[in-house]
Amino acid sequence: MRRVLVALALLGMLVLSGLQLAPIYNGTLLPLLVTIAAAASVLISVAVRRLPAYTAAPASVLGLAAMVFATVRVSAQAGQVAGPVPDVAREALANSIPRLLTALIPIEPQPDTVLLPVIATWLAGLAAAEAGVRYRRVLLSYSAPTVLFGGALYLVGPDTTAARTTTWIPLAYAALAILGLIASARPDLGGEALTGAQRRTLGLRLGGGALAGLAVIVLLSQLLGPTVAEQGNDTPVDPRNYVTPPQLDALDENPLVRLSGWNLNKDQHLFDAVVAPGPGAQQEPLIRLAILNDYDGVTWRIGSVYRNAGRVLGRSDGDGPAVTQTITIDELDGRLLPGIATPERVEGVRVAYDADTGTIALTDPVRKGLRYTVTSRQKPRPDDQELFVAEVPSPEEAGRFLALPGKVPDSIAQLGSHLGEGVSNPYQRAFAIQQWLEEHYKLVADAPSGHSYPNVEHFLFGNKQLGGQKGTSEQFTAAFAVLARLAGLPTRVAVGFQTHMGSPTIRGADAIAWPEVEFKGFGWVAFDPLPKSDTVQRPVEDDFKPKAPPSNPPPPSVPPPSDATSVQASRSAGPSAAPAVTSGGGNVLVLVVAAGVPVLLLTYFVAVPLLVARRRRQRLSTGPPSVRIDAAWNEVLIGLRQAGRPAPAHLTAEEIARYAANAAEPRAHSAGRSLRPAVPPVDELAVLVNAVAFAGASGPGESQAVRATAQATAYVEDLRGRRPWWRRLVWTLDPRPLRWHRRR
């Protein structure tokens, strides 16, 4: 019954370790698989406990193989991963660590994200059950589940949702550990068996132990309390920082330069989008392709971190109506996938997702005919009255979205100051910039690509005859972003496509860019600086003319060249010129090395006690009675050596028996107060050893050998139990008995 309780406690601890991962996974598949793995592993070890120890590992390996097959098959079906089970399993085993650490939370249960936790749980269950059930080393058996529990906590990292939902798990884990120790404990001595001196000793020990424990707790709280309190707000280490997530290539890092090419080829069929807006959603929403956060004065870049995702993309806040889009790719190339903001679920394709921008990408090149479905949560735009009183994040909070590296041309800076005159709040500043652009500039489809400082300056103040003061949505958006950042407004650039009610076809003419400004409490709000169809363009010179410094040379008579990364160059290179998205291994080696030390220690802590127990079992259970009696005597001698009281070599067997009794007894000054009964005698074993020595194989028989084994085992166990706890731990982990196999 005690072994059953220990097995149940170990099983519960393993299951709790798996449940620690549940909040960072989508659905209940992982907790279910981990529970099955823990139960099967422990059950197999319990079932073969009466068989020789060497049968446990092969039986468990066969069970693990079946578990791996079932895990791969079930998770592949759930995650819509196609392919033969052996191939999928091989690929999952080879890439489990990097894909697990680059996956988006909540992690989609797929073969490469669930196989590692399942295998780790199974191996921990095998080690724990063998140590705790077969060899009755319960405290030692806790090491494997504890390492598994710590690994789960490390993998969860700083995820706050997991921290809030799993606070009960450590308490339950500790309760199960205590239950296992209680179930495996030896019965206490009855009160009627204690003498008066023993009662006083017991009281002193209990009181002294309680006072010592209380003193240690108070001392640690005073010494470590302030330090722990200071570290209370620190963010836990995130192991995902050690692995490089998938990266975009140069073509997709700046899709803004592709707008001119798409607008020139206005009839180019890029993709089809069948949009099904929910109640309250926009009827002709913008489909977003990319968000560009970073600007270096020459090029806008995405700068996003795309993490491998399954069908579920992040945790939904439930704000805004749902919009479903079924998208079929035609001539759109690259690796970025279009979708209405903000996507929550993707069906039909495996994607990487950037949670900060809400954009998705493929790990492989887009192919013609690719079909997928996106479910998005469309956040409604705040009304003007709400935005009128809204503030923007401080420069410390939004420094990335205010950066303007290099020297901004004086003319642009002067225009920014002019537009900010008499404007009191952020929304008015943004609206003033939008109104200026839509009233003074012309939207054309044949403007050359470019959004560097010289390009923006030429767009704002260039000669109309030389292409100035007109451009595509690229120039309008880039100019808005630069002016907004000059005005202290956190701004980014979005690239996407305009949809049309009643027509699913998205063509080159539908490609568009727009700026977004961040407001506290409302997030990113889109602005439209493009002129309306009925807008009459007003001359810039009538409302503003930049003041040129006297030392400046006259303005150039020719427009500045376009960016080197023009759409013509990108198109001539073709889709095949773009390198593949890489899923870098990063510092995976660092993780492997860091994990190697605890693995080696765990291997030692498990292997040494198991090997010692196996060697003892073999010596005491194999061979004729004379050999087993000799082995039993050898166990007594080994126990004395481990206790630090080796028997002198000149003593006879009877003298060693008396020496062994004295070695285990308490010292003379505390003999009357000892709480333990007398040590089990080995006198009969000494007589049997002498009989074997003089009579040989014809001496003692089977019953005497069994009696000798029982006497030696009882003596050694009692001798070990009289040591302090730390000496018992050293005794358990001592590898020397593996070579102390000959009788002295």
UniProtKB/TrEMBL annotation:
One Pfam family of this chain: Transglut_core
Region named Disordered: 535-582
Organism domain of life: Bacteria
Transmembrane segments: 31-48, 55-76, 114-132, 139-156, 168-185, 206-225, 588-612
Residues annotated as domain Transglutaminase-like: 465-531
Biased composition (Pro residues): 547-562
Ranges of biased composition (kind: Low complexity): 569-580
Name of protein: Transglutaminase-like domain-containing protein
Lineage: Bacteria, Bacillati, Actinomycetota, Actinomycetes, Micromonosporales
